[in-house]
Amino acid sequence: FTRASGAMAPLSTALNGRGTVATLCGDLATAASLAAEKDVVNEVTGIRMVSTCDLLLAGYRGRPADAESLFAATAEDATARGEGLGVQLANWSEAVLRNGLGQYAKALAVAELATAETYSPLGTRWILPELIEAAVRTRRPDLARPALDRLSAMTAIEGSNWAKGLEARSRALVSEGREAEAGYAEAVERLGQTPLRPDL
Prior knowledge:
By secondary structure, the chain is mainly α.
């Protein structure tokens, strides 16, 4: 509809949103195509809004050489404009990248920054699993358990398979033995009912 109507600002927002969903579903080719279209719209209109799609796509692709400059530029630009959400999104995306590469200490550092801010409570919920994973892998249960408590409080409200699947996986990470096994099994079952392939 926005393409047909020529409403360029809403089109940029819609492309960013669809690209973000495609990224979270693991369809990186579609996400990249939507991001490229969004970039054209933004260039024509002069829109300078932070792109969740570009950031997460860079994080999930796992290419530090490309991603690091995007994260740094986004954080710098967002800071200059007074947009704390942009910094939070850049830190979340870097946590995804670092966890994916097994660079858990670096992931923990940026995830802590991202979850300390509350620009977007919904965004914070998505970042907490990254913090929990990084904290567990760096042997910091003192950080992982409070983060799990925060995540559980948030997922209790929503209750979707995605939210509960992330919670179950995070609970398994901080557990051992049968409790961990049960958490992983629940996570696989719940996330398997969603289109969110990277989390599964």
